[in-house]
Amino acid sequence: MKWTNDRSDNVDDRRGSGGGGMLVGGGLGTIIIAAIVFFLGGDPSAILQNSATSSPQQSEQRQLSKEELNIREFVKMLTAENEQTWNKVFQENGIQFTPAKVVLFESGTQSGCGAARSEMGPFYCPADQTIYMDMSFFNELQQKFGAQVGQFTVAYVLGHEYGHHIQNLLGTLDKVHQLSQRGSETQANQISVANELQADFYAGLWAKQTDSREKFLEPGDIQEAMSAAAAVGDDNIQKRGQGYVNQESFTHGSSAQREEWFMKGYNTGDIREGDTFSALLR
């Protein structure tokens, strides 16, 4: 993908700062459960706040490498493009837009949803309207889950997390939480799948709208997004982790569903086409 000249000030790079916090008291089981939630974009606040406390654990400060500084600039660019695209979409629909913040961290840091760890992958915290990303996640995505990782993989993941911010601004996350509390576990899982697939749709919409404005896509970029979407499908993760697939336990959608809804967002570029809840909860 081509880099644009836009940069956002809403990126907080905490790598090399010597700070951060580690989970204490949650136990390995809690960390694994939270990791699954974090890894695929969910809100882990209930898990972390109820089962773990945070204890400051300082590490030595260090200078960031040229590669790390380059990553910072890349994330600032992607964040700026998300801000511009979504501000335009919201204006067209008469809605007030508020940008999300993005935090880059390593090992551990504090969030409005509790302490975060690198093993948990990128996530959006609605409590402080912030996306948290440890960039080592993308090595895991390639090595453990078979994704084709490139620059647009990062763009897709950030676009998905920004999609959760859009849901937060539109009140979708509150409705999802309320609906999930009323039904059975199976119904709650179905609602979660619809929620995650809508974030994939928003990522595709962002790619389409941003490319229309900036012409930043290059051959192979969308294929990278498809590879990442397939890698984090529930069926792929279950096959690799436990050797079989249990569709009733899906919380984020199959590989095929995640690809389908990203492409629907990309092909339509129309936020009105992203009602995954009506499509899936019939």
TrEMBL record:
Residues annotated as transmembrane: 21-41
Membrane-related topology note: Single-pass membrane protein
Pfam families per the UniProt record, alphabetical: Zn_peptidase
Keywords: Membrane, Transmembrane, Transmembrane helix
InterPro entries associated with the record: Uncharacterised_pept_Zn_put
GO annotation, cellular component aspect: membrane
Ligase as UniProt keyword: no
Record's subcellular location: Membrane
Subcellular location, principal: membrane
Name listed for the protein in its UniProt record: Metalloprotease
